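Whiteboard transcription, Tuesday session. T.W. wrote the structure tokens on the left side:
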């Protein structure tokens, strides 16, 4: 039984790390590949400093990894499947009842599963 305790604690740590809306959006933004902080900030309409603050714990927990090119840092998911896992978790969100309409969750699912405009070129 000790292994179940260890694994449960590790999973709880991961869920705590993901328990921030900006981090979830950041992971979903990186689902299609590597991006620099400025691109992520622009896509999420957040300051670059805030993006960097969220990337630090994600990097420390090996959810993302970075690559430097000159002064730029590029980030990518170490396990892209985590983005699909987050989309699947939308089924457990009771947004439809709280917002009074289901369109919001459907819009997010569509956004988070859409291909990048760059990849269709």
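and on the right, the sequence the group agreed on:
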């Amino acid at each position: 039984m000790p292994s179940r305790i260890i694994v449960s604690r590790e999973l709880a740590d991961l869920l705590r790390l993901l328990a921030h809306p900006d981090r979830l959006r950041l992971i979903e933004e990186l689902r299609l590949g590597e991006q620099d902080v400025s691109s992520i900030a622009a896509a999420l309409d957040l300051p670059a400093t805030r993006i960097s603050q969220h990337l630090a714990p994600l990097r420390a927990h090996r959810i993302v990894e970075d690559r430097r090119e000159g002064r730029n840092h590029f980030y990518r998911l170490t396990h892209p499947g985590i983005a699909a896992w987050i989309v699947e978790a939308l089924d457990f969100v009771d947004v439809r009842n709280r917002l009074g309409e289901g369109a919001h969750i459907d819009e997010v699912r569509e956004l988070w599963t859409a291909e990048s405009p760059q990849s269709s070129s």
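Someone added at the bottom: Helices lie at 2-18, 21-29, 37-44, 48-60, 81-89, 95-99, 103-113.
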